[in-house]
From TrEMBL:
<feature type="domain" description="Polymerase/histidinol phosphatase N-terminal">
    <location>
        <begin position="103"/>
        <end position="182"/>
    </location>
</feature>
<dbReference type="GO" id="GO:0005829">
    <property type="term" value="C:cytosol"/>
</dbReference>
<dbReference type="Pfam" id="PF14716">
    <property type="entry name" value="HHH_8"/>
</dbReference>
<dbReference type="GO" id="GO:0042578">
    <property type="term" value="F:phosphoric ester hydrolase activity"/>
</dbReference>
<dbReference type="InterPro" id="IPR016195">
    <property type="entry name" value="Pol/histidinol_Pase-like"/>
</dbReference>
<dbReference type="Pfam" id="PF02811">
    <property type="entry name" value="PHP"/>
</dbReference>
<protein>
    <submittedName>
        <fullName>PHP domain-containing protein</fullName>
    </submittedName>
</protein>
<dbReference type="InterPro" id="IPR050243">
    <property type="entry name" value="PHP_phosphatase"/>
</dbReference>
<dbReference type="InterPro" id="IPR017078">
    <property type="entry name" value="UCP036978_PHPhdr"/>
</dbReference>
<dbReference type="InterPro" id="IPR003141">
    <property type="entry name" value="Pol/His_phosphatase_N"/>
</dbReference>
<dbReference type="InterPro" id="IPR027421">
    <property type="entry name" value="DNA_pol_lamdba_lyase_dom_sf"/>
</dbReference>
<dbReference type="InterPro" id="IPR047967">
    <property type="entry name" value="PolX_PHP"/>
</dbReference>
<dbReference type="InterPro" id="IPR004013">
    <property type="entry name" value="PHP_dom"/>
</dbReference>
<dbReference type="GO" id="GO:0008270">
    <property type="term" value="F:zinc ion binding"/>
</dbReference>
<dbReference type="InterPro" id="IPR010996">
    <property type="entry name" value="HHH_MUS81"/>
</dbReference>
């Protein structure tokens, strides 16, 4: 195993396990630093014991490099694999749907509040077997998450084009997780939103507004032709700072999603698992499409899609109503035209 591979695998497993960013950052930084050095210099420093003095490396990460160079599986990686490398859910739960997925419509890079560069997120998605994924960093008003101004988003589109050249035939689609403002309008220039392959719209503020106002807000958003996916519709938070689900008339909102061909997201983050099962079943009965999305903020979190697959399977969501089972071409035709190909 190459040193960089060992360091990246450790970071991936920590992220998949839900580790906070600072625990993972040392391994991501070390992988980047080692990747920049020549193989010869890494070996020379490993031999004379000076690896740990390289900026960005420490005793633990240089130990991992030395063990990998010696042809051993690093002890830390072996322990982590035993402890956290197994399946995230029991048995076959969700596996059938997971195998049917070709992509992920919601993930963040370090351009907003994610922990890794765009390329790293795309490569990790590809290595998990995906054919495509959508980069959906936050919109301007979410300053706490470094939401992208229109100019920065335009700049990001250039980067996405370059990543696509590197990773073809894998496709990184352009996108945004756009804030739904209090009145249901979107937090980005419409002309720019129209250029993107996919728009996920989510509520991140005033989650406790009264049900009638929240219903109007969500219906306005999902009825906007620029919106493709309604992100984590209740906003509930299951761990850390707990937050109850927002109150709204789910019958009206899901009917609007079905009428305007906006997919309902099944958010896979263990701290969200949104919508709750009763609402998921209600959306199913209303005839909506679905997007099973990791909402990953780090490469290892891309593996969390299995949680949403398990819940979708439990609720009887058929694969052909899940947009992640489509090809990139089908997805972009659908978001571009508002009609679903082959259905
Ligand atoms: Zn969000
Ligand atoms: Zn998100």
């Amino acid at each position: 195993m190459e040193p960089v591979e060992a360091l990246e695998r450790i970071a991936f497993l920590l992220e998949r396990q839900g580790a906070v960013t600072y625990r993972v950052q040392a391994f991501r930084t070390a992988a980047a630093v080692i990747g920049e050095l020549s193989g010869e210099e890494v070996r020379r420093r490993a031999l004379n014991g000076s690896l740990a003095r390289v900026k960005g490396l420490g005793p633990k990460t240089s130990g991992v490099v030395e063990e990998a160079l010696a042809g051993r599986v690093p002890g830390y990686l072996a322990r982590l694999t035993a402890e956290a490398g197994g399946p995230l859910v029991d048995g076959e739960r969700g596996q059938r749907l997971r195998r049917a997925l070709r992509g992920d419509c919601h993930l963040h890079s370090n351009w907003s509040d994610g922990g890794s560069p765009v390329e790293a997120m795309a490569r990790a998605a590809r290595d998990l077997g995906h054919r495509w994924c959508v980069l959906t960093d936050h919109s301007p008003r979410l300053t706490i998450a470094h939401g992208l101004t229109a100019d920065r988003l335009r700049e990001q589109l250039t980067l996405v084009a370059a990543v696509n050249e590197q990773l073809a035939p894998f496709r990184l689609l352009t996108g945004i997780e756009c804030d739904i403002l209090d009145d249901g309008r979107l937090d980005q220039e419409p002309e720019l939103l129209a250029e993107l392959d996919m728009v996920v719209a989510s509520v991140h503020s005033k989650l406790r507004m009264d049900a009638a106002a929240m219903t109007r807000r969500l219906v306005a958003a999902v009825g906007n032709p620029l919106v493709d996916v309604l992100g984590h519709c209740t906003g509930r938070q299951l761990t850390g700072t707990l937050r109850p689900p927002s109150q709204f008339d789910a019958g009206l909102v899901f009917a609007a999603c079905a009428a305007y061909d906006t997919a309902v997201e099944i958010n896979c983050r263990p701290d969200r698992l949104d919508p709750p099962r009763p609402l998921l079943r209600q959306a199913l009965d209303a005839g909506t499409l679905f997007a099973i999305d990791s909402d990953a903020h780090a490469p290892g979190q891309l593996d969390w899609q299995i949680y949403g697959c398990a819940r979708a399977e439990e609720c009887g969501v058929p694969a052909d109503r899940i947009i992640n089972t489509w090809t990139a071409r089908q997805v972009t035709a659908w978001t571009g035209t508002g009609s679903t190909p082959g259905r």
